[in-house]
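Blinded run. Sample ID left blank on purpose so nobody reads anything into the name before looking at the predicted structure. Input follows.
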Amino acid sequence: MSLPQRREALVSSLALLTSLSTLLCCALPAILVALGAGAAMAGLVTAIPQLVWLSRYKQIVFVAAGAMLLTAAALRFVNRGSCPADPRQAELCQRLRKFGGITLSLSSALYLIAVFFAFVAPILFG
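Blinded prediction complete.
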């Protein structure tokens, strides 16, 4: 695996991780409370007290996650035709690109869901 491919895989993985953090900090609590599972939310905060910190600094978390998603998309665009000529390595490169695309799509979907629950839903339903 070449350095650009490794960099793309790393950034895609970090984008997924930061998108999950936005989902955990903001979307999951809103969903649990909306479903009437406030006790489950209290238990979750007791088990994972870092959720309070993530919720307190959600703007920073969302900016960091958005930056990682944009970086992953930019690297994916820049490296779109950079697979090697060797057939075996080219096949591995194509599989890695497919995995990166799926990861980036999943990360973007999670991010948009979290943006809705953190910023849009409180305005619409608050």
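Unblinding after everyone has recorded impressions. The chain has a mean pLDDT of 83.
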